[in-house]
Amino acid sequence: MEFGIDISRYQKGLDFETAKKQGVKFAVIKSSQSDFTDPEFVSHFDKAQKYGIYTGAYHYLTSTNADDAKRQAEYMIDKCLRGRKFEYPIFADAEDAALKELDRKTVDSVIRAFCDTVEKAGYWAGFYCNYNFYMNYCSGRELAERYSLWLASWSESAPAECQMWQFGGEVNLLRENTVAGIVCDQNYCYMDYPALMRERGLNGFSKEAAQGELKVGDKVRVQSGAPIYKSDKKFQSWVYLTDLYVREINNSRVVVSTLKSGSVTGAVDKKYLTLVKSV
What we know:
Elements (H helix, E strand, L loop, with lengths): L1 E6 L8 H6 L4 E8 L2 E2 L3 H10 L3 E7 L5 H16 L8 E4 L3 H4 L3 H17 L4 E6 H6 L3 H5 L3 E5 L11 E5 L9 E2 L2 E2 L1 E5 L3 H8 L18 E4 L21 E7 L2 E5 L8 E4 L3 E5 L2
Parallel strand pairs: 1-2, 2-4, 4-5, 5-6, 6-7, 7-8
Antiparallel strand pairs: 1-11, 2-3, 8-11, 9-10, 12-13, 12-16, 13-14, 14-15
């Protein structure tokens, strides 16, 4: 579990050196909203990089239909993401009041359109919302099967579903609500995203780690959202987050498993596998 913050123009002037000394490992930075860039995005990103704090980015989503969500994602990609490397996912911040006026199916389509556009550009996509929105305004659990979930729940205990938990901001029941003297939203992350980005060649990192000839016994990861071999069905969400053993290789068909022997997890096209460790 790693401790981190999420920040925007409201944290202008944050002392990243002090933040790092206070235990901050990552910062998810607001990059954009609608069709404009947060004025502190570049400064926050550069300072985080300078002091060795991992970065992710989020876009405050104001779209009310899938086409506009795609357009907003393309803006974020073109104006903010290209040319930079991010160790943490790229998130759609789904909390705008306009989204709450939509039916659940439309909200789902907006989030999917944004995240799919981000993924097609070579980034790891996720969505952020509070627990009420997750339960009542979108198909939260279904979306979380497909994309990383960053959940806001300002409480003393973490929701079970998420990979990242925003546990406090102005209200903070676990820690002081300031970092380096400035009020910040604060988070715990339960996944080693920096390693995953490098392994899979995402978020601006090269794909060198994914190259090489697979052998039986190698450890691999199935790329997020990859289908079961020669089908349109997806694996259960945990499969994409787990190191698996190569059990059998037949041309492009690779059988993988959590175990070295015995029952298998399933089969997947070789192109969707990333080599984690070679035997």
